[in-house]
Amino acid sequence: MSTADPAPQLKLGWEEWVSLPDLGLPALRVKVDTGARTSSLHATGIETFGPASAPKVRFMVHPIPGQYDLEIPCSALIKDRREVTSSNGESEMRFVIETPIAIAGQSWPVELTLTDRRGMAKHMLLGRQALTENVTVVPGERMCQPALDYSVYASANIRKSAPKRALRIAVLSREDNYSTRRLVEEGENRGHTVEVINTTRCYMALNALAPEVHYDGTRLPRYDAVIPRIGASVTQYGTALLRQFETLGTFCVNGSEGITASRDKLHAHQILARHKIGMPATAFAASPKDTGSLIQIVGGAPLIVKLLESTQGKGVVLAETKKAAESVITAFRGLKANFLVQQFVKEAAGEDIRCLVVGSKVVASMKRSGADGDFRSNLHLGGSAEAVRITKEERATAVRAARAFGLNVAGVDLLRSETGPKVLEVNSSPGLEGIEKTSAKNIAALIYSEIENRVRPAPVRRLKPAAT
């Protein structure tokens, strides 16, 4: 029966370099103090989150003493909460976490209490409880082990090596539908805390120094990311709320400007045109005298008349003759509705391609076909969908369209025309049910991968106040 070789003896002085890899802290200068029972780590912005059965704590660390414009966001499971008496006799209730410490190639778990050590020469204290049997401390010596370097915090590689920190994420949604449930389920499966926030129950404190978002009478906590699932009926209020989160510095999967632009079909087509992205010929006018010109611009009947704020195929009419087109346009104007007129792409034959863009690539695509006798292919109106392989040109067009709106997650609807792909619409809150079931891909997981890549621990530089 063989036993593992014992760890080599480790000699430490009163000051050493260590790393806390699971917290994303590759270099810390610590004071080794056998007179102190517990170990402590400098932390600010300490905040609990997560379920009561497995509570977590999130906090910010300034790894370089005196350099408080550099912050590293960290999180860990709470192991305990206990009263600690400092060397000056003051007692404080502190959260206790457990995390591996690495010194000179050796690693072992240590308990750390979280406290604000600003003003102290070392931002971490290593007490005697953290010292294993193979560690010898020589109080009269320092830096007995290899030195590390604070320059690692300036490296672009620190994000790549960052640990998988648990995140606190808000889903802005008023509906308990498939997409919302999948986002909650997948986030929790990955160890994050995901909270569904009803958009219209939020209210905002507009304050230049301390802007806040409140919900049901209490201030909302700081979130690592917000996933907006804002319904069309509350676009204006929902995007205003999103701007508040943006002001707070929260990463929003889709920004307020992109959502606002995508919901206004006239504005959306102007953005597509500005970026030279293919789309059906489109015309808009305010005067009834221009009806004939509108019809002519889009190549005559048959044509599509579309309300500017239509969703899920509602408010979209196919006019098969010039007379029918004139009647529909007159009726819409009589209702004082804003609409545009668009070329009908016959060769698409009632089919379109939904490309789901996450980050900078198309992660799934499906071909949607309308129900019998319906030119609209929306699944909400009884259409059907099947997986489809898209061309390189279609893929590039979908990515360019999402990028034009600044969207990290977008459903880009394309028509296959004789002159190449034409963008019908860019959806800033695409449903997940149809695309996940059709493509057999875990789209929610891909969305979380994008979020994690964007907000996992990395140096955060805070702007210094201007000199007066």
Automatic annotation (TrEMBL):
The UniProt record lists the keyword Protein biosynthesis: yes
EC number: 6.3.2.-
One GO CC annotation: ribosome
Top-level taxon of origin: Bacteria
Cofactor(s) required, per the database record: Mn(2+); Mg(2+)
Stretches assigned to the ATP-grasp domain: 269-452
Keyword field: ATP-binding, Ligase, Magnesium, Manganese, Metal-binding, Nucleotide-binding, Protein biosynthesis, Ribonucleoprotein, Ribosomal protein
One GO MF term: ligase activity
PANTHER family linked: RIBOSOMAL PROTEIN BS6--L-GLUTAMATE LIGASE, RIBOSOMAL PROTEIN S6 MODIFICATION PROTEIN
Protein name: 30S ribosomal protein S6--L-glutamate ligase
Organism, scientific name: Leisingera caerulea (Phaeobacter caeruleus)
Source organism phylogeny: Bacteria, Pseudomonadati, Pseudomonadota, Alphaproteobacteria, Rhodobacterales
